[in-house]
Automatic annotation (TrEMBL):
It comes from Streptomyces doudnae. Its cofactor is pyridoxal 5'-phosphate. Gene3D superfamilies: 3.90.1150.170, Aspartate Aminotransferase, domain 1, Type I PLP-dependent aspartate aminotransferase-like (Major domain). This is Pyridoxal-dependent decarboxylase. Pfam families: Pyridoxal_deC (PF00282).
Length: 463
């Protein structure tokens, strides 16, 4: 063994203690450090010929890189939809690395069984029934990709084509209908050989709504003349967290032949609260469902779950049989269900957080985040210089300036807030209007943070 490696081995507990000390220090200052780092990163170094050992690497990281990392795990990072990491989830994540299990299958370890247990808990959390099976993937983009891959295989079944063998071209053009799809849906269609341009936009409801107009969807399906299609329903749009009427969309299957995929990346968490669960009424009828976990479950990056009712088709797409890996059987290993072969045990941080805080603890995070988003919405609404572009339906505030809301102005405001270090918000465009979004999904955010964000916005506007 190389001498430096042997040294590190002999001092492993001390090295882990040092890493723990660094992490604890960073986390203790998380709420007060600048939320975003806007300066340039250091130039890339040369590959070290001789290493420094673990302690040297830790010192180098602490000095050279850590100061430039954002406080995205903290309470006032409101860009995109960004969760933090609950204490138990973080502990679970550390142990994922320490145990370093390959959750590709069940051979030789209970790790895959833990993933099954966790997927079962999540299914229950989101109100899905036993007909949905699932697996962990890296994020909602991968979850949408898997769901749409199974949808593609289903289209093949309807048209008498084995897509996994003959390829997507054998299907001919595939109609994919959606009201307000996330950009990752287009990306998935590109990867799947269906094509980004096969995504047919369906009109959404009028005014400040982003939910699909169900009558327009009905008409668009009728226009296909009986050709089977894929419908992507949206449960929680990124701009205003609007929800398609999942029951009404699902009911269209009585008259039209389509696979129903629901992107519930963060909107799925509405199911945790009796007050908001009606927003995802009908989710259980979906053929495939995407839910992100590194957003509102507050587990570290990266983790999401995908669910489907047709595991047989999923295996047709993803099976990876070989003499050394084995063939998919009655209870197929995860390597036959997702794009990966070898897989990190992503379920462990989620298992830790659900075990530590339960449904109740995670419900409290969701309900508090919604209250805080509404609080910020009310503060902005009360001031003449800001306009809310939609009511705060759940955890995102979508707003703009009442005067001169140009793209440049909104981007400059977002930059000014980031440079001030108090908060991080991201610009968007809502129905043609440049805007800002403030998305609440961190488990540590409080009312005090909302006050600070509102004050930072006012300062940026007056500067
Ligand atoms: C965030 C998000 C995605 C993409 O998720 P990643 O985890 O970034 O891959 C997809 N759909 C919706 C609705 C989202 O909010």
């Amino acid at each position: 063994m190389h001498r430096t490696l042997a040294d590190d081995l002999s001092r492993l507990p001390a090295l882990l203690q040092s890493a723990r000390d660094l992490a604890a220090g960073e986390l203790a200052s998380l709420a007060e450090r600048p939320v975003a780092r806007t300066g340039p990163a250091p130039a890339a170094d040369r590959l070290p010929e001789a290493g420094t050992g673990g302690a040297g690497a830790l010192a180098r990281f602490a000095e050279r890189w850590a100061p430039g990392f954002s406080a995205s795990a903290g309470p006032r990072y409101l860009g995109f939809v960004t969760g933090g990491a609950t204490p138990a989830a973080l502990a679970g994540d550390w142990l994922t690395g320490a145990f370093d299990q390959n959750a590709s299958g069940a051979a030789g370890s209970w790790a895959a069984a833990l993933e099954h247990e966790t997927v079962g808990w999540l299914r229950e959390l989101f109100g899905l029934g036993p007909a949905h099976s699932g697996a962990f993937v890296t994020g909602a983009s991968a979850s949408n990709l898997v769901g749409l891959a199974v949808a593609r295989e289903w289209l093949g079944e309807r048209l008498g084509v084995d897509v996994s063998r003959d390829g997507a071209a054998a299907l001919g053009p595939v109609p994919v209908l959606s009201g307000s799809p996330h950009s990752s849906v287009g990306k998935a269609l590109s990867v799947l050989g269906i094509g980004r341009d096969r995504l047919l936009p369906v009109p959404v409801a009028d005014g400040d709504r982003e939910a699909v107009d169900v009558a327009a969807l009905d008409a668009a399906l009728t226009a296909l003349g009986g050709r089977p299609a894929i419908v992507v329903a949206n449960a929680g749009t990124v701009n205003t967290v609007d929800f398609d009427d999942l029951r009404a969309v699902g009911a269209l299957r009585e008259r039209h032949d389509f696979w129903l995929h629901v992107d519930a990346a963060f909107g799925g968490f509405a199911a945790l609260s009796p007050e908001f669960a009606h927003l995802v009424d009908g989710l259980d009828a979906a053929d495939s469902v995407c839910v992100d976990l590194h957003k509102w479950l507050n587990v570290p990056y990266d983790a999401a779950v995908q669910f489907t009712r047709r595991r047989d088709l999923q295996v047709a797409v993803f099976h990876n049989a070989s003499p050394y890996l084995g063939a998919p059987t009655g209870d197929p290993d995860f390597l036959h269900l997702t794009p990966e072969n070898s897989r990190r045990l992503r379920a462990l941080p989620a298992w830790f957080s659900l075990t530590a805080y339960g449904r109740e603890g995670h419900r409290e995070i969701v309900e508090r985040n919604v209250r805080l988003a509404r609080d910020l919405g009310a503060r902005l609404d009360a001031r003449p210089e800001w306009d809310l572009l939609a009511p705060v339906r759940l955890n995102v505030v979508c707003f703009t300036t009442s005067e001169a809301p140009t793209g440049e102005r909104l981007a400059a405001l977002a930059d000014a807030v980031a440079e001030g270090g108090e908060a991080f918000l991201t610009p968007t465009v809502f129905k043609g209007v440049p805007a800002l979004r403030a998305a609440f999904s961190n488990w540590t955010t409080t009312r005090d943070d909302v006050e600070r964000v509102a004050a930072a916005l006012t300062r940026a506007l007056r500067a």
